[in-house]
Specification:
Blueprint: E1 4-7, E2 16-20, E3 41-44, H1 57-60, E4 76-78, E5 85-87, H2 90-108, E6 113-117, H3 123-137, E7 142-144, H4 151-161, E8 179-183, H5 187-190, H6 195-203, E9 207-211, E10 224-226, H7 233-246, H8 252-258, E11 259-260, H9 262-270, H10 274-281, H11 285-297, E12 301-305, H12 307-310, H13 315-328, E13 338-341, E14 360-361, E15 365-366, H14 370-380, H15 394-400, E16 409-413, H16 417-420, H17 424-432, E17 436-441, E18 453-456, E19 465-468, E20 473-477, H18 490-500, H19 511-522, H20 534-540, E21 543-544, E22 570-571, E23 590-595, H21 611-616, E24 621-624, H22 626-632, E25 639-643, E26 648-655, E27 663-667, E28 696-701
Parallel strand pairs: 6-7, 6-16, 8-9, 8-12, 9-10, 11-22, 12-13, 16-17, 17-18, 23-27, 24-26
Antiparallel strand pairs: 1-2, 2-3, 4-5, 4-18, 14-15, 19-20, 20-21, 23-28, 25-26, 25-28
Helix pairs in contact: 2-18, 3-18, 3-19, 4-13, 7-9, 7-10, 7-11, 7-13, 14-19
């Protein structure tokens, strides 16, 4: 193998790749123009099981991110609120931030300063950011964009299994499965190399069942497509469970030996008789029956969920419905079977384990648990009573910015909420109302353009660290090229600010040293990394957590012997269908659902700057059924206006029979007038605090 082995900067599959074209050590030249035109080349690695030598178009073009024309290489600052952003020195920028934080905290208390992180940050950066918020700023006001990603699946998994970890085993287990039910996921577009494992399963005689209101690229490859109305997944899951019970397909022995709470769930499922579920969801009974029989008849089977079933005001309950089905069939805790979630962002798994969530400390510890506080405070060298309590969740935090009782300043790392947050126009207004907005980014994203101070950060290939992929496997990201002059890593930025603020403890800029502290802080927690070292990751191709000691092999398949609950049993949780928080009516008669497309990623701040990806997916669109288009007098390619109770977006119509007649679809990667999140609702899941991205009521006009 030549070049520097590392991993893709995009999704949680974390495909292995090598980077070549620059010297692979300190002293290497920067890429792009400053390297005399040297070009970094990407090649897939075949020694990483997740992608086995495959990459998607985003991965193949990832090196182009390093030389995008508007790359930030110097700090920017507004001299006054109404002044433009202008170049400044690092000392000027950091002094401005520190003095602003100090003034606002003195006037309004420590919660006047907020921190917003991202699911793409390395484990080291996520850990250090959480530590910075709690002991340098002493604020409770920290959350991250992963709240918009996997939080509902995390909450449902936690209450069912006592632990939240994406997949129940290595992704390669899927190839040996006899059936996979995937609810609300479209990996053919969001993580294409993942489809190799499902293709291997189908080649071996297994069946793929896809649940989605759209006939997506993934659904087109399925053996069975269930196409429910948006927001009806609880009814569907309960209906499938009803059929499993009625046809004697439940694993009663497993239920008795390894679970609790089944009687309450059985009572609920009994009320979801087939014609009722068909009426609610629109899914025909024969397809529901076939899905249950395929799952129950397989020696090994998986039930998987993704954002389509999770980004709802009842997203935790939707996931619980599918977990109940998996438990009734005896799948979790069986080798090669189980329930899992397809994590979205690159470090969506690790990013929420080590302290950048409002209610968590490192190791997946609860911040209001006295024992957890004592342990982490001991590692940090502070009094446990000095640690703040739980803060606001992501959308609640963004909504509170600049209000009388909300934060007056925000430091934002690795996120672009002006595009990605629900009710985006309101979020943009809240960000603009702050006394101080600081954004660390490598490009002038839509959010960075609102900032008072912009800090240019190193990119994925310019720094080292660890990522935890959707399997729970901790991987090494290796530095392959030197960042341009004037750019600093997030760890360097955090350390510099901590020093100016007089924060206690050590603030290393060395990722391996930070990881060593993370290991100590996570020790004994649910997500125990204490036995994982950089050397082990290197030697073993990644290590699965929990791994409580250096002689522990790691845990690729949790739950085989017992579940990490007080009694060792998995817990059923009864859930009832209630429909969307905002249903259709005469004024807004259509459902809107949102999602991703193959050539773009998240808010598009990265992928919209790569020419090949921008050419492949140049702008937003509105997908609608031909019958709806005919009724509205809309032709393919014509601009249409989509209105909700929160805003209006305009994009070109894409007429297709791949979507239900009562539903329209928009991708959310673009800013401007086609910004899908101008429309989306803000109802929050009561458990996960996930906003309801995936369904709201709209109307369309030409």
């Amino acid at each position: 193998m030549t070049g520097t082995p590392t991993h893709c900067p995009y999704c949680a599959l974390q495909c292995g790749m090598t980077l070549d074209g620059g010297a692979p050590a300190d002293g290497m030249p920067a890429t792009g123009a400053s390297a005399g035109g040297a070009r970094v080349r990407v090649a897939p690695r075949d020694d990483v099981p997740a992608n086995r030598g495959g990459l998607c178009q985003k991965g193949w073009t990832a090196a182009e991110l390093l030389t995008v024309p508007d790359r930030l290489t110097t700090p920017l600052m507004r001299r006054t609120r109404d002044a433009p952003l202008e170049p400044c020195t690092w000392d000027e920028a950091l002094d401005r931030i520190a003095s602003g934080i100090g003034r606002l905290a003195a006037e309004h208390g420590p919660d006047a300063v907020a921190v917003f992180g991202g699911g793409g940050l390395t484990n080291e950066k996520a850990y250090q950011l959480g530590k910075f918020a709690r002991i340098a700023l002493r604020t409770s006001q920290i959350d991250y964009n992963g709240r918009f990603c996997m939080s509902s699946a995390a909450a449902a998994s936690g209450r069912a299994f006592g632990m939240d970890r994406g997949l129940p085993g290595p992704v390669t287990d899927l190839a040996a499965s006899g059936a996979v039910l995937l609810a609300g996921g479209n990996p053919a577009e969001t993580m294409p190399p993942f489809m190799r494992h499902l293709a291997d399963m189908r080649d071996g005689g297994g069946a793929l069942i896809v649940v989605d209101p759209r006939r997506t690229a993934t659904a087109r490859q399925a053996d069975l497509h269930l196409q429910p109305a948006a927001g009806t997944d609880i009814a569907l899951a309960n209906g499938l469970l009803h059929l499993a019970l009625a046809e004697g397909l439940a694993d009663e022995e497993y239920i008795a030996a390894r679970t609790s709470g089944f009687d309450a769930v059985r009572t609920v499922a009994n009320a979801y008789w087939p014609d009722r579920v068909e009426r609610i969801t629109g899914v025909p009974l024969p397809k529901m029956r076939e899905a249950v029989r395929l799952l129950a008849g397989a020696d090994r089977a998986h039930v998987l969920t993704a954002r389509g079933s999770e980004q709802h005001a009842r997203g935790t309950d939707m996931v619980s419905g599918f977990i109940n089905l998996a438990l009734a069939l005896g799948l979790p805790g069986r080798p090669g079977s189980g329930y899992g979630c397809l994590t979205g962002q690159g470090n969506g798994q690790g990013g929420r384990e080590h302290g950048q969530k409002a209610d968590q400390l490192p190791g997946y510890r609860k911040i209001d648990d006295p024992a957890a506080r004592a342990h982490v405070a001991g590692v940090w060298g502070v009094d446990p009573d000095a640690l703040p309590g739980p803060g606001r969740s992501a959308y609640e935090l963004l909504s509170a910015l600049g209000t009388p009782d909300g934060p007056k300043a925000m430091l934002l790392f690795g996120s672009n909420p002006v595009v990605s947050a629900p009710r985006a126009a309101s979020v943009e207004e809240r960000l603009g109302s702050l006394d101080l907005l600081v954004v660390a980014d490598f490009v002038p994203s839509e959010t960075a353009r609102l900032a008072d101070v912009v800090l240019p950060t190193a990119q994925w290939a310019e720094e080292s660290g660890t990522m935890t992929n959707l399997e729970g496997r901790v991987l090494r990201r290796r530095r392959a090229v030197r960042a341009p002059d004037g750019v600093r890593t997030d760890l360097e930025i955090i350390a510099a600010l901590a020093g100016r603020l007089g924060a206690p403890g050590e603030w290393s800029t060395d990722p391996e040293r930070v990881f060593g502290e993370l290991r100590r802080a996570s020790a004994g927690g649910v997500a125990d990394y204490s036995g994982i070292t950089y050397e082990r990751i290197e030697a073993e191709g990644g290590v699965f957590w929990p791994c409580p000691s250096e002689d522990h092999p790691g845990t690729p398949r949790p739950y085989l012997d017992r579940f990490p609950t007080p009694d060792g049993r998995a817990r059923f949780f009864p859930v009832e269908h209630q429909g969307a928080a905002e249903d259709v009516d005469a004024e807004y008669p259509l459902y809107l659902t949102t999602g991703r497309v193959l050539a773009q990623y998240q808010s598009g701040a990265q992928t919209r700057r790569v020419r090949a990806l921008a050419d492949a997916a140049p702008g937003p669109f509105v997908e609608l059924h031909p019958d709806l288009a005919e009724r509205l007098g809309v032709e393919d390619g014509q601009d249409v206006k989509v209105e909700s109770r929160r805003g209006t977006a305009t994009a070109a119509a894409r007429v297709t029979d791949a979507i239900r007649r009562d539903t329209v679809f928009m991708p959310f990667h673009w800013a401007g007038e086609g910004r899908a999140n101008l429309l989306t609702g803000t109802a929050l899941d009561p458990v996960s605090r996930m906003p309801e991205f995936k369904v709201c009521a709209v109307r369309i006009s030409a």
